[in-house]
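quick q for whoever's on today - can somebody do inverse folding on this one?? i tried earlier but teh output was garbage lol. tokens:
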């Protein structure tokens, strides 16, 4: 994948939603991700601002990030994280060496299904038998045009079925699959889905958006819209060796 960092700025999104993303990591480890031993190696594709990186290190997990942005990679290195500054796919890692490959808000930036499949196949290669891949990305089925409104870098359209089918076609077994706006905790799912299918359509209505813009400003509207990003989360497993 071509590195086009120089063609757009990170300044508008660098700090937006950071606290929300950081608080969501605990829920991911409690309710979605597999239980990993403290010596497990976790590799994250596109660690960005480092919320998941910090959550891994705080749990005693070995962590490596592969970050295409030179700016973000250097910022994470200054925090002490092991970061490879490179684009994905391919993945500059040994085969059968990783316990978990994780990506959040990453696959939607890949150009098309061929790059997504290449990323999944590379993940399959580097994972140990019995290792896991977790994929979290914005849910096109619920947020629709908001998927592209502020993110011209979004190319691949993500739905639970598209991600699940692609992972299965790359040899993975699906372990868990869900959608969430606030939290991936199963006991919150009903209220979460009600919120998505009631509040999100209202707040993204063109007339409501115009009213918010008039009463507040474009920056407030941007923040509201970014916090309305419903996500899909799919956890899959590389079959264990027989």
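ok took a stab at it. sequence:
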């Amino acid at each position: 994948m071509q590195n086009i960092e120089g063609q757009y700025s990170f300044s508008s999104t660098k700090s937006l939603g950071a606290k929300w993303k950081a608080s969501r990591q605990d829920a991911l480890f409690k309710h979605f991700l597999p239980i990993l031993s403290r010596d497990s190696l976790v590799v994250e594709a596109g660690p960005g601002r480092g919320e998941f990186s910090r959550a891994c290190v705080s749990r005693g997990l070995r962590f490596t990030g592969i970050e295409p942005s030179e700016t973000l990679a250097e910022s994470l290195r200054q925090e002490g994280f092991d970061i490879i500054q490179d684009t994905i796919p391919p993945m500059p890692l040994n085969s059968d060496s990783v316990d978990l490959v994780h990506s959040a808000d990453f696959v939607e930036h890949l150009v098309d299904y061929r790059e997504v499949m290449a990323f999944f196949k590379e993940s399959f290669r580097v994972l140990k038998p019995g290792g896991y891949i977790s994929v979290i990305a914005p849910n096109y089925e619920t947020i629709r045009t908001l998927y592209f409104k502020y993110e011209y870098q979004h190319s691949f359209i993500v739905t639970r079925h598209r991600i699940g089918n692609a992972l299965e076609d790359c040899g993975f077994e699906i372990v868990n699959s869900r959608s969430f706006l606030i939290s991936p905790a199963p006991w919150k799912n009903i209220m979460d889905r009600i919120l998505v299918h009631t509040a999100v359509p209202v707040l993204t209505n063109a007339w409501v958006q115009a009213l918010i813009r008039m009463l507040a400003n474009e920056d407030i509207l941007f923040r509201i819209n970014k916090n309305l990003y419903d996500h899909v989360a799919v956890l899959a497993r590389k079959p264990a060796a027989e």
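fwiw Strands lie at 41-45, 62-67, 82-85, 98-104, 127-138, 173-180, 231-237. also The chain has ten helices and seven strands. so keep that in mind when u check it
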